[in-house]
Amino acid sequence: LPGATKALTYLQSKRIPFILLTNGGGKSEQERVADLQDKLGVPLSTSNFIQSHTPFADMTHHHDQTVLVAGGDRDKCQRVAEGYGFKSVVTPGDILTAYPDIWPFAKVFRDYYSSFAKPLPHPIATDITHDLTSRLKIDAIFVYNDPRDWGLDASIILDTLLSHAGYIGTLSSKNGDTSLPNNGYLQDSPPPLYYSNPDLWWASSYHASRLGQGGFAAAFSGLWAAATNGAALTNTQTFGKPHQGTYEFAERILMRYRKGLVGQVGLNAPLRRVFMVGDNPESDIKGANRYKSGSGVRWSSVLVKTGVWREGTAPSEASEYTVDGVWDAV
């Protein structure tokens, strides 16, 4: 992050409110902030730091339900979800460890999954005619971070969406019923599917950008279309930049942080303008350009020539400003 240390130090010294908004994730906010502090040498706080899945913490209506969490290394995302207040969190690895035949191509990974898998809260159903009250029911599906095992995660998510009311192991009798909307698919009380990050590409240490969570989402959409003969995937919501919901959440956090920083002055001088600085035209720039603030705040986009940005390539979304780096933006 060229210039980041200088830029953040300046903002802090001048008491200029800012937030760090990333489409990254897979760790707790505390762990991510600690990593950034070590790399940048700047004191940071979780109070103004937002990852792609941070808005999930506000979904209190799911906290007492059983949710499926996919993505990330080992059980890190499961523990993040539990830290957000979700009381019953299941991962594809937990299901595979309990029922190895559910994805027979994962034999080579079984030792990996069994090293951190947790017992399921209930067994899966083997037939829809069984009493389902004591069977595993998934009430919501969350993709917290880039899936490491696309085959397993996609298979478990597909099973869940094709099931009766989220009971894994069942198959909805409404699927394929042409007398119903969407040919019967997703008409049997399915769980919602939440993605935390739409990025197709992300900048890694490799010289070319790598597929991100958006790649998995695109692949799963194709799988869903093939499995359902083109039925719509209607129960999906995507967070992360550039989506409206993430910017709404970010604006609330920025306002809260600003009031804590400037005190009563912040109550009398409303936030008027935000500069969104980022390297990804498809997320950072598009999000700032298209965000509609409910508080009348104007968001201006600033593209920096680092990270995903490539010399000689026309950005897919035009920015209000273009600069060489983060320090130039500040």
Structure description:
- The chain is α/β, with parallel strands linked by helices.
- It has 2 domains: 4-52 and 241-323, HAD superfamily/HAD-like (Rossmann fold), CATH 3.40.50; 54-238, HAD superfamily/HAD-like (Rossmann fold).
- It has 11 helices and 12 strands.
- The chain has helices spanning 4-13, 29-40, 76-84, 92-98, 110-114, 150-161, 213-228, 244-262, 264-268, 281-290, 326-329, and strands at 20-21, 49-50, 66-70, 88-90, 140-143, 193-195, 201-202, 210-211, 236-238, 273-278, 298-304, 321-323.
- Strands 4-3-5-6-9 form a 5-stranded parallel beta sheet.
- Strand 1 (20-21), helix 2 and strand 2 (49-50) form a beta-alpha-beta unit.
- Helix 4 crosses helix 6 (150-161).
- The protein is elongated and about 65 Å long.
- The model has no long low-confidence stretch (mean pLDDT 93).
- One of its GO terms (cellular component) is mitochondrion.
- This is HAD-superfamily hydrolase.
- It holds the Pfam family Hydrolase_like.
